[in-house]
Structures are given as structure tokens and as C-alpha cells.
Amino acid sequence: MDITPFFGTAWALFPPIVAIILALLTKEVYSSLFIGILVGALMYSNFNPVGMVEHTISIISSRLGDNGGIIVFLICLGIIVSLMQASGCSKAFGDWAAQRIKTKRSSLIFTPLLGLFFCIDDYFNSLTTANIMRPITDKHKVSRARLAYNVDCTAAPICIIAPISSWAAAVNSYVPEGGSMNGFQLFISTIPYNLYALLTLFTVLFMYVKIPTGLPETQIQSAYGIGGFFAAMFGPIAGLLIAFIGHALSDIVQYGSAWWSWVIASAVFGLLMGIFTKRIGPKAAFTGFAGSIVVLLLCNGYTHITVVLYGLIGLVSCFLIGSISSFIYAYNK
């Protein structure tokens, strides 16, 4: 421990005296104790403000045990959130959002979208997003449990795959120097294996984000697009698992039970999309996907086509158009 000029002198009594006097004057014990700690740390660091902060955090963390650093970090996050509420920042943003969010579905969609902007840390994400969106979701009669689920779906899942987050910093600190890759490269390489994050994002998209087509009772579910993307990026097995588990969880959350025929159909779609993309390439696969949408829109006017046949037409047309496109792209090269 470094010896300061105040060590063993009467000045060493100054920090507790400050804390006692402030406690008597303000009746705020905790705030007075914290100010006394800051005064002592400032004297310990020879009146260096940066050293004061470093010594305060290190000493408090060491006295709290192995998880002291995490506790101090959470306390700082709570202070930031409280300051945002006290300053009126959260209320101002909530009032701005309330003027633009008119329906229950839009409030449910806006909640995870807002969480994307607080990807620096999952705890900070949960605290900030929940405090901002709670008045808006209450206005549209969204249950607190539903709000909590939406907030949690984009707190940890986004943070554990976002390169700019506390998770990336933690992984970087755990990797020893001199290895085959640094911590940041290791973090990026593990993103495809974070199935919890990918499945959760798939579930949220499946439940809330649907693109209207203008046709009666016909919408494009963006979850199939993101599922196809994951299948193309990480292979058919990943596509199958993400689509199967994501669709099942979505049905259970929304309806209380899974509609297994459609869950299996989604899983087959993810598997085939992974195999299909791997064989013909992503460019041709995207062409097939876009072409199948056009075919389904053209077939929509025939009322005698059943739902199963409708899905089969879309699947077959996607494969045929994609396969033909792959030959055309290969020939042009």
C-alpha cells in the first residue's frame, strides 16, 4: 500500500469528521458516508481526481469479495438510471413515443426496438427500456409480465452478440495474451453458436413483426426471413433448430400451446433453406425466395387452393427459381 503524506497524522481523521458533520446536518446517512469515502480517497490519491475514482472502486470492490466489481458496476448503473428519471429524460422520451405509438402491437414492437439502442449492457438495457416503456404499455393495457418478456428478449440476447458491449469486454479480458486470436476475434467467432440469442430474436420477430401485403388476411412474417438468413449463414442444422424452437416458443407464449404442424413445417423450411443455400449459393437462394413470393401472390386469387398446397407451391417455386438462377449466375461468370 502506498504511504500518503496524511498517513499517521491528524488529517487522517478528516474524512470521518466530514461524514459525521454532513450526516448531522442533512439527515442523509448513506450520502454522507459516501462523500466521506470520496474525501478519504481524494486525500489517499494526493488530490488526483482520477486516482480518487480508481481507489474508491478498487477498495470497495476488494472489501465486497470476489463479486465486488460486479456489485459496484450495478450500483453505478442504478445511479445512471435514477439520474435519467430525476432529470426528466425518460419522461420526455416517453411522451414523444406516446404521441407516435397508437396501438398495443406497436407498443410491443417498439419495446425490443428501443432495447437495440442500449446494447452496451444487459442490466442497463433492462432498467432503462422498462422504465421508459412502462407508462406507454400500461396505457395500451399490456401486462407487466408481457413487458418484462419483451424487455428481456432484447437485453441479454443483443448484448451477447453485440461487438460494443460489456460482454465483449469481459470475453476480451478473459483471453490470455499470446494466443492464436485475441479476445475480440474470439467473441466474434462465437456469435453463430449463441443459439439462445438467435432463438430469442427469432421468437420476437415471429410474434410481432409482420409485413402487410394488402391482401386479405395475408402477411409476410419476417421471422421466416431471419430464419432463412441464419440457415444460410450457419447451416441447415442451425436453421432447423432456430425455426423449430423459435416457432414453438412463440406459439406457447401467445396461445398457451404450440401448433405442432406449423412448428414442424417451420423447422423443415429452416433445414431445407440451409441445404438449398449451401448448394446453390446465397445470391440464387435470395432470387428463389423473391420469386416464390411473386408466385404466391399470383396464386392468391384461386380460392380452391388449400393452405397446405399453397405452402407447397411456395416451397417448390422457391427451389425451382433458385436452381435456375444458380445456373444463370454460373454461366454469366
Question: Please, could you describe this protein's structure?
Answer:
The protein is an all-alpha fold and 333 residues long. It has a domain at 1-64. The protein is 74% helix and 2% strand. It is built from 17 helices and two strands. The chain has helices at 14-26, 29-44, 49-64, 68-87, 89-98, 104-115, 122-139, 144-153, 156-159, 166-174, 183-190, 195-208, 222-234, 236-255, 260-280, 282-299, 307-332, and strands at residues 210-212, 219-221. A two-stranded antiparallel ribbon has the order 1-2. Strand 1 and strand 2 (219-221) form a beta hairpin. Helix 7 packs antiparallel against helix 8 (144-153) and helix 14 runs antiparallel to helix 15. The longest helix has 26 residues, at 307-332. It starts with 13 loop residues before the first helix and ends with a helix. The model has no long low-confidence stretch (mean pLDDT 75).
Describe the structure in brief.
With 333 residues, the chain is mostly helical. It contains 17 helices and two strands. The protein has a domain at 1-64.
Largest sheet: 2 strands, antiparallel
Unreliable stretches covering 5 or more consecutive residues: none
| Amino- and carboxy-terminal Cα gap | 69 Å
The gyration radius over C-alpha positions equals 27 Å
Q: What letter string, H or E per element, gives the SSE order?
A: HHHHHHHHHHHHEEHHHHH
Report helical residue fraction: over 70%
Total DSSP E strands: 2
Question: Any key phrases for this structure?
Answer:
single chain, two-stranded antiparallel ribbon, 2 strands, 333 residues, 74% helix, mainly alpha
